[in-house]
Amino acid sequence: MSQGLRKPVLQLLSIPATAGVSIAMWAAWLGWDQQRDVQPDGTMTGPYEAWQVIGLVLTLLVPVCWAASRRYFVGAVLGPTAGLTTAAFYDWSDDTSGLFAVGVGLIMMGTLAATAVLSAVIATATDHRQRQPAAHYRPS
């Protein structure tokens, strides 16, 4: 594969790669917990606990940071967004109230915003690091 064609192909391949990782992480962190918890006062919570969602977010930082640090911004932003949106739709689509569509939309918008901001921060940090001149020793 020619060097000029390699970058766009890797950029495109990063989308299904990060989407697949996102779906797998959803299944690992949230997919197994489907029961709502009934509190003593009769209210229902769940089905997810805060630690599960935090774990999902922290583990998804790895593929997003990996893709963004290699300048695969499309994969860093669209891959996790597509993966989490797909996983949420599949997981929640059995809801009879129809409100799952609102939740899926919020997942999509939140993931898109968060990955875009994180990718911009990583791009700025890596660009700044690459532009810094090497320190030279100057004898006094």
The backbone outline, from C-alpha atoms, is elongated
Number of strands: 2
Which structural class do the helices and strands define? mainly alpha
Q: How far do the termini sit from each other?
A: 51 Å
Low-confidence stretches: none
The figure for the number of domains is: 1
Radius of gyration, whole Å = 20 Å
Describe this structure in words.
The chain has one domain (6-35, 45-131). Helix content is 72%, strand content 3%. Strands 1-2 form a two-stranded antiparallel ribbon. The chain is an all-alpha fold and 140 residues long. It contains 4 helices and 2 strands; from the N terminus they run H-E-E-H-H-H. Strand 1 (37-38) and strand 2 form a beta hairpin. 24% of the residues are buried. It comes from Streptomyces xiangluensis. This is SPW repeat-containing protein. The chain crosses the membrane at residues 12-30, 50-68, 73-92, 98-123. Keywords: Membrane, Transmembrane, Transmembrane helix.
Strands, helices and their partners?
Elements: H1 3-31, E1 37-38, E2 44-45, H2 50-69, H3 73-92, H4 100-131
Antiparallel strand pairs: 1-2
Which structural traits does this protein have?
single chain, 140 residues, two-stranded antiparallel sheet, 3% strand, elongated, SPW repeat-containing protein, membrane
